[in-house]
Specification:
Elements: E1 27-30, H1 46-51, H2 53-59, E2 63-66, E3 70-71, E4 83-87, H3 94-106, E5 110-115, H4 125-132, E6 144-145, E7 166-169, E8 174-177, H5 192-208, E9 212-215, H6 257-269, E10 275-278, H7 284-287, E11 300-301, H8 305-308, H9 313-326, E12 334-336, H10 345-349, H11 351-361, E13 367-371, H12 391-395, H13 438-442, H14 448-461, H15 463-467, E14 470-472, E15 479-484, E16 488-493, E17 499-500, H16 505-508, E18 511-515, E19 528-529, E20 534-538
Parallel strand pairs: 1-2, 1-13, 2-5, 5-9, 9-10, 10-11, 12-13
Antiparallel strand pairs: 3-4, 6-8, 7-8, 14-15, 15-16, 16-20, 17-19, 18-20
Helix pairs in contact: 5-6
The structure holds alpha-D-glucopyranose (GLC).
Alpha-D-glucopyranose binds near residues 76, 180 and 217.
Length: about 550
């Protein structure tokens, strides 16, 4: 059913107590190359993920998002798709996918795929045709421009991964645009045939029963039709990443994007209860537009505010308040701490504070996305120079974060190759494998894994944690304090120093439901919050 055609559009309908599944859910991101290898090639696969479904069910997450699994030459590890309807043999077959989808649903979990619409691989049949001649019917499916008068690139748009965003193609004497690698030519989303072809791709997977998509770099889909130069970024200094050299005023986040998204949303809404998430790195004011006018945007514009913020109460507190205040009516919040492009949370804020970060992520209002491996506290990974895989790190070795450090294999046991594979994995495991692995943490009630299970269990049991309002409470830094609903309070010490707690009486006399440091519950509320401690508290009369 197309809701929009049916009359005034209601984004989040809660009549009759109905909540959309994804408002109550925790999403778990899997980087498939690194989850579980079953065919002994050192790279994870679909059969491996399927084998680990009981682990995910016991952990207490609700939906699994897989980074791309489609046929790809892997120039950007699957974010360069050569066939949107085929599984890459590295990951398995379509039969493996169907079995994974069926078993995921049988385990009571949802499955989300990664949709990569901004660009294809240069090996995609569409691009092969497009580049074959200027009058090929698919020429306009990509972004081709004549050289500038001096023969150089048509404008100053840069590739996010370094260097010009334009590559000259000898065969036809024009440049094509790529916001990422030259092996990832951007599609022309102004072309109606492109939009139709991509809508058909969505339908192909929706017909199979997938529960939704995370849409890669969605804010990049619409570009300035006049291809104006981007203005220089005054804050950029030589040696910094090319990505930040110019403000991306014309190469991304154009008004036309919202029409494109509304079309994608129509496809999604023609199936019941499917979810559309957008990957969007923009400041809050621009991010909010992605909910769409009248809620016809993505359901969840990924909220990355916590990823880049300095880990200080004075920063994190206002950031949460501002995000909450900026949400449009009916816009459902969401929170992300890390992903396959960003430093691991335990690497970024310290292993002790990663426990506080987990409590924050899983007690804020809105859908949390948990990145695989964060639940066992994978922290520092060392990637020797001769094992670097990330194409961005290879392009800009001095300037960019090496994303390999966030993509190392899941550590299942202290045994050979961490139980991930029987052969040397594509990226090394971390040096603390002996203690940082599922088997070892499984039986330790104080482990990071146990803390995640407790937090996810609490979130499931306590409706106020899922649906209650977020209200900031008075507290002096380094304590961050907020209430969820009427009866739950979350008290987080974002430092290693103990700090006084000055709580309203009903919380001061309340009961501790969970302690971040030990994963334990019970006991009275202290009047000092130890360093690196976090508490979820129920009010005495709650
Ligand atoms: C997104 C992905 C990233 C990829 C890029 C190009 O940011 O998360 O991994 O390299 O898009 O597709």
């Amino acid at each position: 059913m197309n809701f929009r055609a049916a009359g005034p559009f209601v984004l989040f309908r809660k009549e009759d107590g109905v909540t959309h599944w994804w408002q109550d859910a925790t999403i778990y991101q899997i980087y498939p190359r690194s989850y579980q290898d079953t065919d002994e090639d050192g790279v994870g696969d679909l059969a491996g993920i399927r084998q680990r479904l009981p682990y995910l069910r016991d952990l207490g997450v609700d939906a699994v998002w897989l980074s791309p699994i489609f046929q790809s030459p892997m120039a950007d590890f699957g974010y360069d798709v050569a066939d949107y309807r085929a599984i890459d043999p590295l990951f398995g077959t379509m039969a493996d996918f169907d079995a994974l989808l069926a078993d995921t649903h049988a385990a009571g979990l949802k499955l989300l795929l990664d949709f990569v619409p901004n660009h294809t691989s240069d090996q995609h049949a569409w691009f092969q045709e497009s580049r074959s001649s200027r009058d090929n019917p698919k020429r306009d499916w990509y972004i081709w421009c004549d050289p500038a008068p001096d023969g150089g690139p048509p404008n100053n748009w840069m590739s996010n991964f370094g260097g010009s965003g334009w590559t000259f193609d000898d065969a036809t004497g024009q440049y094509y645009y790529h916001a990422f690698l030259k092996e990832q030519p951007d599609l022309n989303w102004r072309n109606p045939q492109v939009r139709k072809a991509m809508a058909d791709v969505l339908r192909f997977w929706l017909d199979k029963g997938v529960d939704g998509f995370r849409v890669d770099v969605i804010w990049h889909l619409a570009k300035d039709p006049q291809f104006r130069d981007n203005p220089p970024n005054p804050a950029w200094k030589p040696g910094q990443r090319d990505l930040d050299r110019y403000l991306q005023r014309y190469s991304a986040d154009q008004p036309h994007i919202h029409d494109i998204i509304a079309e994608l949303r129509d496809v999604i809404d023609s199936y019941p209860e499917r979810l559309l998430i957008g990957e969007i790195y923009l400041p809050v004011d621009r991010l909010m537009a992605y909910y769409g006018e009248d809620g016809e945007g993505v359901h969840l514009p990924f909220n990355f505010q916590l990823i880049n913020a300095p880990w200080r109460t004075e920063v994190i507190g206002p950031l949460i308040d501002e995000y909450e205040a900026a949400l449009p009516e009916g816009g459902w919040p969401n929170w992300v701490l890390s992903n396959h492009d960003q430093p691991r949370i335990a690497d970024r804020v310290s292993e002790e504070q990663a426990r506080i970060a987990a409590m924050l992520l899983l007690t804020l209002r809105g859908t949390p996305t948990l990145y695989y491996g964060d639940e066992i506290g994978i922290a520092k990974a060392h990637i020797p120079a001769d094992r670097i895989q990330d194409p961005w790190a290879k392009n800009e070795p001095e300037a960019s974060f090496n994303r390999d450090r966030a993509r190392t294999p899941m550590q299942w046991s202290a045994g050979p190759h961490g139980g991930f594979s029987t052969v040397e994995p594509w990226l090394p495991l971390t040096n603390d494998l002996a203690t940082c692995n599922v088997d070892t943490e499984q039986d330790d009630p104080c482990s990071m894994l146990a803390l995640h299970r407790e937090l996810l269990g609490l979130r499931k049991r306590e409706e106020e944690l899922r649906q209650g309002a977020y209200t900031r409470m008075d507290s002096a830094a380094p304590v961050l304090a907020y209430r969820r609903g009427e009866n739950l309070a979350v008290l987080l010490n974002l430092s290693a120093e103990s700090a006084p707690l000055d709580l309203p009486d009903r919380f001061a006399r309340g009961e501790v439901l969970l302690r971040a440091s030990t994963g334990a519950n019970g006991g009275p509320v202290p009047d000092q919050l130890p360093g690196n401690e976090g508490l979820v508290v129920r009010a005495a009369d709650g």
